[in-house]
Amino acid sequence: MEFFDSHAHYDDEKFNSDRDEVISSLKDEGITRLVSVGYNIESSKYAQKLSDKYGFIYNSCGISPNDIPQNKEELWKDLQEIYEIAKQKHKKLVAIGEIGLDYYGNKENMDLQKEAFIEQIKLANNLNLPIIIHTREAVSDTLDILKNKQKALNTGIFHCCPLNRELVKEALKLGYYISFAGPVTFKNSKNADEIIQMVPLDKILIETDSPYLSPEPNRGKRNDSRNVKYIAQKVADVKSVPIDEIAKITYENANRIFKL
Ligand code: NI
Questions:
Q1: What CATH number should be reported for the domain holding residue 246?
Q2: 56 CA → ligand 1 middle, Å
Q3: Considering its fold, how many domains does the chain have in total?
Q4: What residues have CB less than 8 Å from 242, skipping those under 6 apart?
Q5: Tens digits of per-residue pLDDT, 191-213?
């Protein structure tokens, strides 16, 4: 069985002591492709470095809503840097992200968050790339931007998708992929089954969001891509489809959206 972990952060300092060891062990566990996702300038550069070093790692770049600078001037400086990184058209750059809105993290800079989101969708459109969306407690503004303010021409992925019926319904209508992460395995996640049922097989991706959000049975520990099988198993159980079939379908889906 082979797995594609659509979203991980191997730049994270939690991997500082054993990064190469962990990454080198992944292939033996069947993780044969993954995207190391950027969330600010440094992590975007680091993700690019990792994809240079490892054949099976791809990268994305972007400024996440939790990494927006204090003011407009700083934001535009950062956006300019992201443009520079992206416009090198690195051969393994597969998406712009993670980008989006997070009103759980910060409600005071909503306007800057929206501006950064819109500008980075434009960048993705210029480069003919999909986007990776982080959205938390911002369903209506996220959908408003995607529908009415700045369409993403290559659509994209709702990463660690909030288990919100309205969001998933609208995201699917717009042609987006839904990426499931650790929380769908948590015992207290009430509607994970219902949401997984809503998403057709050809729109499902699986991810770890390593080093965060370890799925059951490893909840609370540092996460790495080896745990992606537990997400696949959860989807397999809900859909009543064998796990090797889920691995194959989600692999093909990831290849399709990332144009690999
Ligand atoms: Ni992430």
A1: 3.20.20.140
A2: 19
A3: 1
A4: 236
A5: 999 999 999 999 999 999 999 99
